[in-house]
C-alpha cells in the first residue's frame, strides 16, 4: 500500500444518467504525500471535478478505494478547504458573510474570524467589497471570494477546482504567488506545508505552482502522465523566463496533447 | 408627500378597479332588480359601517386577535412540519398523508368535535384558523427546502456542517421565497379560518356579527362585517409583503 | 306535468316525511305537478330561494319569514305545518332547565338564526325573567347537540322535535325539555311559503301543491310507520331510529283542535298576527311588518285529519 | 412484486402512524368516556363504510367530479391570474388587493348567496371549490415567475424574444416547482371547497351525506363519508405528486 | 462621428448598490468596424462584462451613447449571438434543447435547425451529449454548449464573454480555430465576415484571434490601449511560434501590466 496523505486505488466512477451511464473515471491510482502541491490537468470533461469531489468524500466512487490520512473515505472528510469550479456564493449573504460561512458551519465564532476574513479579502483584491452582495461582483471577483472562503479556516488540505479560471493574467499571477505563500513555501524546512490538489487548465500555472503534475487523458479519465516538477523553491516570477521552466512546459504540453512537436497553446 | 405620491402612483389601478366595481354594484342594485337582503347596495353597507348600531370596535378587536394568533400558529407549526418533512423521508412518508388527510377534512363538518375538545372563545378560534391556514406553509416549506442546488449542499458538507446547520444556514434561507409566498397565502387563510371558528361557536367577533345578522336577513350589516374582515386581511397581507421585503430583499417578488 | 320546486328548510329530517310521501304516492303527479324537493341550509336559505324564484314554494320558520318581509322579500306563508310551537330549550337532567326562571345566569347556545334565539326576549318577557341575565353562544347547528350533551353550555334552543337526537347523544331520560308552548308562549313556526310570483301566476298549481302535501301529512298521521319506510326508501341516509320519534313529536304539534276543525295547514288569523306583532316588537326590523303582508289563506284546501 | 415491495418500504411509516392512531382512537372510544355520536369508533366507521345502507358509489362519483372540476378550474384560473400579476405591475396592483379581498371572504358565509346566484348542482359546487382553492396557485405562480435569475431573462432578451415567449419558455418552466407546490395545496383545498358547496344545498355527494347523517346524529356514517373524502383527497394529491414527477423531474422535491 | 458597426461615445456606468454606488466604466469611446474581430482584455472587475451587456442593449449605460449599425441602443439589439460569462443553461432542457432555444425564442422552427444544432455540438466535442441535462455535463462542457447556442442562428454580431475560460489548452485551441472559421476567415475577400467582440483573459488567445485588442485599465474601466494585430490571415497554429506573435504578446503584456520588462504570465 501507498503511504501518501491521499491514496487512490483503482478509483472508477460511472454516472447513472437518465439517458444512459457515463463513465467519467476509469481506474485512477495515485498517491499524494502530505505537504505536496499537486496539479491535475486534462481535457475538459475528463473527470477532474469528479475526482476532486470523490477525494473530498462528497460523492462515492463506483469502484476502487480512497483513503485520506489512512482512513477510507465514505463521507465528507474533515478539515479541508475546497474551491468549486463555480463560485457557489450564497446570494442572501454579503461577501464577508459568505467568506465567514465556514466558521459558522463549523461552529466557530465568526466574530473572531472576521479580521482574518477581511485580510483574505484584501489579499484577493476585494477590500471594500465585504458588504456587497454576490451579484454585485464580477465573475472573477466572485471566484476570488470563493477562494477566500476556502482559506478562512486555514485548512491543512486544499482541493481547488480551477480557482483562477476566471482571472486575468495579472491577477492570476498575484493570486498564484499568494497561494504559494499560504501553502507554506516559506516553511519548506518545517514540513508545515498544506497539501494542495489543484485543477487547472493552464500548463504554465501547473508547472509554476506544483511539485507534481498529474495529466489525465480524455473521458473516461485515466492517468496519462505523472510529472515531477523539480524546479527550485521558492518559485519566483523570474523562474518563468528560465529554460528549465520552458522545457517542463513543453514536456507537459506533449503529455497532454500526445503531440511530439513543440509549440504553445493559448 | 413624495411617499404618498409614490403610493398613489402605485395603487391607482387598485383604486380604479375598486371604484369601478363599487359603481357597477351600486348601479346594479339601484336600477336592477336585486334585493337588498341578498346583495345590499354599497351605500347601505357604508351606512351599516358608520351609522349602524353595531359596536364594531369590540368585534374587530376580537377577530383581529384571533387572526393574528391563527397566522402565527400556522406559520410556526407549518414551518416546523415542513422542516420535519424535508428533514427525513421517513417523517415525510408518515406525516404527509396524515396532513393531507387533516387538510381535506371540511372543518365545518368537525365543528361539534372541535367545540367539545376546544370549547369556545378566542383561543379555539385561533386554533381553527391555524388549522385552516397551516397547510400551504407546510407544503411550500418542504418543497422550498428541497429545491436547493446540490452544489450548495456540497458546500455545507465540505465544511462538515451538521445536518441541522445546513438547514439553518443554507436550506432555510434558500427556501425563504417559498415560505414567504406561503405566508401570503396563509395570511388570507388565517382570516377565513378565524371567521369559520367564530361560525362554529362564538360570542363576539366579526364572524359572530355575520351569522347573527345574516340569519335575520340584515345583510347590509353582514356585508359591513365582511368589509372589516377584508380590511384586516389586506393589512395582514401587506404586513407579510413588508416583512418579505425587509427580511429577504434578495428574494423580492411580486407583492 | 308542470314543474314545481319545493325548497325544504334543511337536509332530510322526519319533519319532511309528508312531502316525500306525497311524492312517492303520486299525489303531486295526480294534480299534474312534477315536484322536486330541494334541500336548504335553514330557513333563511329556503326563503331566499323562494323569493328569487329558484324555488316555487318552500318550508321556513315563521319568525324568519316575517323578518324577511320586513327586509324586502315578497314571500308569504300560505300554509302552516306545526300548529303548536316547537320552540323549546333542551338541557341535561343533572342540571335541568325546566322552567323559565332556571334560565337566569345560564349560558345557552343556538345558531343566531334560530327562532328560540330571536324570540327569546319575548319569551322572557311573558315569563317575567330578565333576558340580559342569559348569555347566548353562537354555534353551528351541527354542534348544538354536542354542546349540551357534553356540558359546554347549560342549554340549547332547538325545536322540541329534536328530542330523539338529544336523547341519542345524552341517553334516554337524561334530556330535559322546556317547550315554550307550555309556558304561555304561542307563536307560529314551521310553515309553507310561496313567492309572489307563484301566488300571482300559478295559483292553481300552488293550491294543488298544498292540498297534495296535506294529503301527505294525513297519510303520515294515519300510518307513521309506512311513512317512515317511504322516507327511508327515498332518502337512504336518514336514520329511522331517531327520525321516527322525531316525526311523531312533530305530529303531536299538529294534532290540535284547530286542525281537527279546519283541516291540516290552517292558518289562524289571530295567532298569525300575534306572531307578527312579536317579531315587530323584538327583531329590530327596519320597517314594521303588516300582518296581511305575511300570509294568505287563499290557497288553502281543507284536508281532514285522520283519527 | 418489487414495486409493491418498494411501495411498502416507502409507506410503512404512514401505515404505522395510521395504525397507531386508529388503535388509540378505538381504545379511547372503547374504554374511555367518549360517546359514539361524537367520535364513533373506527370499527363503527368501518361498518358504515361497508355494511351501511348508504349508496356510496353515487355520492362518491358526484363529489369526485366536483373535486376534479374544482381543482382544474382553480389550477387554470390560478395560473392565469398569477401570470397576469407577474406580467404587469399595473395588473398586479389592480388585481392583488382584489384577490386578497376575495380570498379573505369566508366562503361559508357567502356560499348561500353564491349558490342563489349560481344555482345548485355539480357545476356551482365545482365553482365553490375553485373559489376556495385558486389563491395559492395565484400567489405561488406569481412569486415563482418573479424568482427567475436575471441572467436567464437576459438570455431571452438577447435573442429578442417577445415578452410572452420569455414567459412561456423561461419564466413558467422556472416557476414550475412553485406551481406544482401550489397544486398540491390546491388539491386539498378543492376537496374542502366542493364539500362546502354541498353543505349549503345538495341532493347527493359526500357533503350531502355528512349533513344529512349529522342531522340525525348518525355520526359513524358522517365519519365514513369523511374517510371517503380523504381517500379522494389523497388520490388527487398523489396524482399531483405523480404529475410533478413526470412533468418536472428536475424540480423533484419532497412529496 | 465614427462610422463603425459599434460606436461607443464616452460610455460610463455606475451601479447603484445598496452599499453605495460602484463606478464600473468611466468614459469608454471606441469604434468597431463591421467584420472586425476585436478582443477585450483587462483586469478582473474592470467592467468587461458590463461593457458587453451595454453593447447588447441589456443594460442602459448611465452616461454616454452607444450606437450599433447606426441606431442608438436603448433596448436589446437584434441578430446577435451572446456567450455569457456563466453558461446559463436552462436546467429543465436537454443540451440539444438548450442549443435550440434561440430558434424557439426567435419564432423559428426548431425542427429545421436541429441538424445544425447537432453539427455545432459535434464541432464542440459534445456529440452524443445532446439528450443529457446540463447538470450532467462538466463545467467546460456546459460552456461549450452555451457557445453552440450562441452560434445556432448564425448571427452577424457575436458578443463573447470568456467563452473559452473553462477549457483546457487543447480544447481551447480547437475551439479558437473553429471560431475563426465560423467568423468567416475563409471569406476575407467577400467581406461576409461576422463582427466579434471577444472578452478573454488570455493574451496569446487575444493576439491569435483578433484584428484588434482593446486593453482596459482597472476599475473604473477606461481604455488603456488599442492594439492593432497585423498578423496575416488565415491564422495557423504555426503562427504562434513566430517572432511577430511573441512581440505582440509582449506588447500586450506591457500594455496590460504597465510593466516595461519582458516576461510571461500564467
Ligand atoms: N449588478 C451589479 N451591481 C453592482 N455592481 C456591479 C454589478 N455588476 C458588476 N458590478 C461591479 O462592476 C464592476 C465591473 O464588473 P464586470 O462584471 O463588468 O467586470 P469584468 O471586467 O467582467 O470582471 P471579470 O473579469 O472578473 O468577469 C465590478 O466592480 C463589479 O463589482
Ligand atoms: N452529475 C452528473 N451526472 C452525470 N454525468 C456527469 C455528472 N457530472 C459529471 N458528469 C460527466 O462526467 C464526466 C466528467 O465530468 P467532470 O465534471 O468531472 O469533468 P472535468 O474534468 O471537471 O471537466 P471540466 O474541465 O470541463 O470542468 C463528463 O463527461 C460529464 O458529462
Ligand atoms: C343538526 C341539525 N341541524 C339543524 C336541524 C334542523 N333544524 C333545527 S332548528 C331549524 C330551524 C330552521 O328553520 C332547523 C332547520 C336539525 N334537525 N339538526
Ligand atoms: Mg470541472
Ligand atoms: Mg466578467
TrEMBL record, chains A, E:
GO function terms (MF aspect): ATP binding
A Pfam family recorded for this sequence: ABC_tran
Keyword ATP-binding: yes
Lineage top rank: taxon: Bacteria
ABC transporter domain: residues covered: 6-243
UniProt-listed InterPro entries: AAA+_ATPase, ABC_transporter-like_ATP-bd, ABC_transporter-like_CS, ABC_transporter_ATP-bind, P-loop_NTPase
Translocase recorded as keyword: no
This protein's UniProt keywords: ATP-binding, Nucleotide-binding, Transport
Family according to the record: Belongs to the ABC transporter superfamily.
PANTHER family in alphabetical order: ALIPHATIC SULFONATES IMPORT ATP-BINDING PROTEIN SSUB, TAURINE IMPORT ATP-BINDING PROTEIN-RELATED
Protein name: ABC transporter ATP-binding protein
UniProtKB/TrEMBL annotation, chains B, D:
Secretion signal, residue range per the UniProt entry: none
Compartments reported by the entry: Cell membrane
Parts of the chain that traverse the membrane: 67-87, 94-120, 126-145, 175-201, 221-248
CDD domains: TM_PBP2
Keywords for this protein: Cell membrane, Membrane, Transmembrane, Transmembrane helix, Transport
Sequence ranges assigned to domain ABC transmembrane type-1 in this UniProt record: 60-244
Membrane topology field: Multi-pass membrane protein
Alphabetized InterPro entries for the sequence: MetI-like, MetI-like_sf
Similarity comment text for this entry: Belongs to the binding-protein-dependent transport system permease family.
Name recorded for this polypeptide: ABC transporter permease
Amino acid at each position: 500500500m501507498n503511504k501518501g496523505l491521499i491514496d487512490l486505488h483503482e478509483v472508477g466512477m460511472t454516472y447513472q444518467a437518465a439517458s444512459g451511464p457515463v463513465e467519467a473515471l476509469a481506474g485512477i491510482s495515485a498517491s499524494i504525500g502530505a505537504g505536496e502541491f499537486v496539479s491535475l490537468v486534462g481535457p475538459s470533461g475528463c473527470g477532474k471535478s469528479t475526482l476532486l469531489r470523490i477525494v473530498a468524500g462528497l460523492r462515492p466512487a463506483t469502484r476502487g478505494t480512497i483513503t485520506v490520512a489512512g482512513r477510507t473515505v465514505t463521507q465528507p472528510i474533515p478539515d479541508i478547504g475546497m474551491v468549486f469550479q463555480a463560485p457557489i456564493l450564497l446570494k442572501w449573504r454579503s461577501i464577508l458573510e459568505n467568506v465567514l460561512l465556514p466558521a459558522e458551519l463549523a461552529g466557530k465564532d465568526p466574530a473572531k474570524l472576521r479580521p482574518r476574513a477581511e485580510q483574505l479579502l484584501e489579499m484577493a483584491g476585494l477590500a471594500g467589497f465585504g458588504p456587497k452582495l454576490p451579484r454585485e461582483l464580477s465573475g472573477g471577483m466572485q471566484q476570488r471570494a470563493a477562494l477566500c472562503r476556502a482559506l478562512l479556516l486555514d485548512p491543512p488540505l486544499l482541493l481547488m477546482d480551477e480557482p483562477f479560471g476566471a482571472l486575468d493574467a495579472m491577477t492570476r499571477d498575484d493570486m498564484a504567488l499568494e497561494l504559494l505563500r499560504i501553502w507554506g513555501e516559506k516553511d519548506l524546512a518545517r514540513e508545515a506545508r498544506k497539501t494542495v490538489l489543484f485543477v487547472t487548465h493552464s500548463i504554465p500555472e501547473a508547472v509554476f505552482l506544483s511539485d507534481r503534475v498529474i495529466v489525465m487523458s480524455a473521458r473516461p479519465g485515466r492517468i496519462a502522465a505523472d510529472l515531477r516538477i523539480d524546479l527550485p523553491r521558492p518559485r519566483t516570477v523570474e523562474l518563468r523566463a528560465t529554460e528549465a521552466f520552458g522545457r517542463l512546459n513543453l514536456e507537459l504540453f506533449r503529455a497532454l496533447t500526445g503531440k511530439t512537436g513543440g509549440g504553445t497553446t493559448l | 408627500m413624495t411617499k404618498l405620491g409614490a403610493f398613489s402612483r402605485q395603487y391607482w389601478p387598485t383604486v380604479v378597479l375598486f371604484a369601478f366595481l363599487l359603481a357597477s354594484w351600486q348601479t346594479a342594485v339601484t336600477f336592477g332588480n336585486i334585493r337588498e337582503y341578498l346583495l345590499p347596495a354599497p351605500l347601505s353597507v357604508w351606512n351599516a359601517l358608520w351609522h349602524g348600531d353595531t359596536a364594531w370596535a369590540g368585534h374587530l378587536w376580537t377577530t383581529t386577535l384571533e387572526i393574528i394568533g391563527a397566522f402565527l400558529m400556522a406559520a410556526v407549526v407549518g414551518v416546523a412540519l415542513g422542516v420535519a418533512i424535508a428533514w427525513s423521508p421517513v417523517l415525510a412518508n408518515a406525516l404527509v398523508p396524515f396532513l393531507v388527510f387533516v387538510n381535506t377534512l371540511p372543518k365545518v363538518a368537525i365543528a361539534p368535535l372541535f367545540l367539545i375538545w376546544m370549547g369556545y372563545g378566542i383561543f379555539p378560534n385561533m386554533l381553527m384558523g391555524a388549522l385552516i391556514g397551516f397547510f400551504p406553509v407546510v407544503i411550500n416549506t418542504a418543497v422550498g427546502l428541497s429545491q436547493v442546488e446540490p452544489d450548495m449542499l456540497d458546500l455545507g458538507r465540505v465544511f462538515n456542517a451538521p445536518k441541522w446547520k445546513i438547514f439553518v444556514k443554507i436550506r432555510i434561507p434558500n427556501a425563504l421565497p417559498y415560505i414567504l409566498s406561503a405566508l401570503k397565502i396563509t395570511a388570507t387563510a388565517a382570516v377565513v379560518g378565524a371567521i369559520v371558528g367564530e361560525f362554529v361557536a362564538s360570542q363576539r367577533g366579526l364572524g359572530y356579527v355575520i351569522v347573527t345578522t345574516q340569519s335575520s336577513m340584515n345583510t347590509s350589516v353582514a356585508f359591513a362585517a365582511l368589509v372589516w374582515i377584508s380590511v384586516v386581511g389586506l393589512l395582514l397581507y401587506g404586513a407579510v409583503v413588508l416583512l418579505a421585503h425587509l427580511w429577504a430583499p434578495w428574494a423580492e417578488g411580486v407583492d | 306535468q308542470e314543474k314545481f320546486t319545493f325548497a325544504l328548510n334543511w337536509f332530510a329530517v322526519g319533519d319532511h316525511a309528508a312531502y316525500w310521501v306525497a311524492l312517492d304516492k303520486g299525489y303531486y303527479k295526480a294534480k299534474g305537478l312534477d315536484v322536486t324537493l330541494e334541500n336548504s341550509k335553514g330557513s333563511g336559505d329556503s326563503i331566499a330561494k323562494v323569493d328569487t324564484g329558484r324555488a316555487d314554494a318552500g318550508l321556513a320558520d315563521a319568525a324568519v319569514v316575517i323578518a324577511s318581509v320586513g327586509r324586502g322579500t315578497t314571500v308569504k306563508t300560505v300554509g302552516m305545518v306545526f300548529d303548536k310551537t316547537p320552540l323549546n330549550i333542551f338541557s341535561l337532567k343533572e342540571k335541568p332547565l325546566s322552567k323559565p326562571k332556571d334560565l337566569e345566569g345560564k349560558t345557552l347556545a343556538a345558531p343566531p338564526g334560530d327562532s328560540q334565539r330571536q324570540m327569546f326576549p319575548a319569551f322572557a318577557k311573558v315569563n317575567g325573567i330578565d333576558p340580559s341575565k342569559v348569555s347566548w353562544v353562537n354555534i353551528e347547528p351541527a354542534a348544538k347537540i354536542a354542546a349540551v350533551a357534553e356540558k359546554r353550555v347549560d342549554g340549547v334552543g332547538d325545536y322540541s322535535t329534536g328530542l330523539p337526537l338529544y336523547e341519542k347523544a345524552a341517553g334516554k331520560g337524561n334530556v330535559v325539555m322546556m317547550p315554550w308552548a307550555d309556558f304561555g308562549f304561542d307563536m307560529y313556526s314551521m310553515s309553507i311559503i310561496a313567492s309572489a310570483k307563484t301566488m300571482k301566476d300559478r295559483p292553481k298549481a300552488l293550491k294543488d301543491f298544498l292540498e297534495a302535501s296535506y294529503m301527505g301529512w294525513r297519510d303520515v298521521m294515519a300510518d307513521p310507520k309506512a311513512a317512515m319506510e317511504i322516507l327511508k326508501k327515498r332518502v337512504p341516509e336518514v336514520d329511522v331510529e331517531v327520525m321516527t320519534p322525531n316525526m311523531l313529536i312533530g305530529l303531536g304539534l299538529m294534532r290540535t283542535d284547530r286542525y281537527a276543525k279546519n283541516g291540516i295547514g290552517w292558518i289562524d288569523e289571530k295567532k298569525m298576527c300575534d306572531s307578527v306583532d312579536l317579531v315587530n316588537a323584538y327583531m329590530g326590523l327596519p320597517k314594521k311588518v303588516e300582518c296581511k303582508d305575511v300570509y294568505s289563506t287563499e290557497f288553502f284546501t281543507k284536508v281532514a285529519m285522520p283519527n
